[in-house]
Specification:
By secondary structure, the protein is an alpha+beta fold. The protein has one domain: Alpha-D-Glucose-1,6-Bisphosphate, Chain A, domain 4 (2-Layer Sandwich). It is built from 3 helices and 7 strands; from the N terminus they run E-H-H-E-E-E-E-E-E-H. A hairpin with a 2-residue loop joins strand 6 and strand 7.
């Protein structure tokens, strides 16, 4: 994993966490839903807006202007697809704005797919004036990721459940 923009000392605003959820549907369905930029706002609670800015809108070469909400602040950010392995992995990385690297992994399981999201970030100085601000922002990011994965599971299990009827 390339972490060059995330080397730091203990006093920095950089952080990393990982969250996992099991979803009762196939990896291709989960992957296709997550990698369609039009779906991101439906389950990612900290994405307020997202629009493609590249000719390519899916897969390698895709780039998006995105507005993230972190601790009440709206942060314009440009994301690009860094890695795209069909039904297995998607990595998005910022090239300006909120410094973030978000890796999605999709692994087949006996009853569906295990989805893991690993988020590396560098919190903007403007929202972390105090240690308390930094802790609150980190907790907000972790809670938003947890909520987003739970909502993704609910959407996909509801959707696939309706298809089977």
């Amino acid at each position: 994993m390339n972490t060059e923009m995330f080397h730091s000392n203990k006093d920095s605003n950089m952080g990393e966490f990982k969250r996992t959820v099991a979803i009762k549907t196939t990896p291709d369905i989960v992957f296709n839903y997550v990698t369609d930029w039009r779906n991101l706002k439906s389950f990612m609670s900290n994405i307020l807006d997202i629009n493609p800015i590249s000719f390519v809108q899916y897969g390698p070469g895709a780039a998006f202007d995105t507005v993230f909400k972190v601790s009440g602040a709206e942060i314009p950010t440009t994301l690009e697809v860094e890695e795209f392995v069909r039904d297995k992995r998607l990595i998005l990385r910022s090239r300006q704005g909120f410094k973030i690297r978000c890796a999605w992994e999709f692994k087949p399981a006996s009853d569906g797919t295990v989805v893991t999201i690993t988020l590396q970030y560098d919190l903007p100085q403007g929202i972390t004036r105090t240690e308390s601000d930094r802790i609150t922002a980190q907790q907000d990011l972790e809670q938003a990721s947890f909520n987003s994965l739970q909502l993704l599971r609910w959407i996909l299990e509801s959707f696939t459940g309706q298809e089977k009827k």
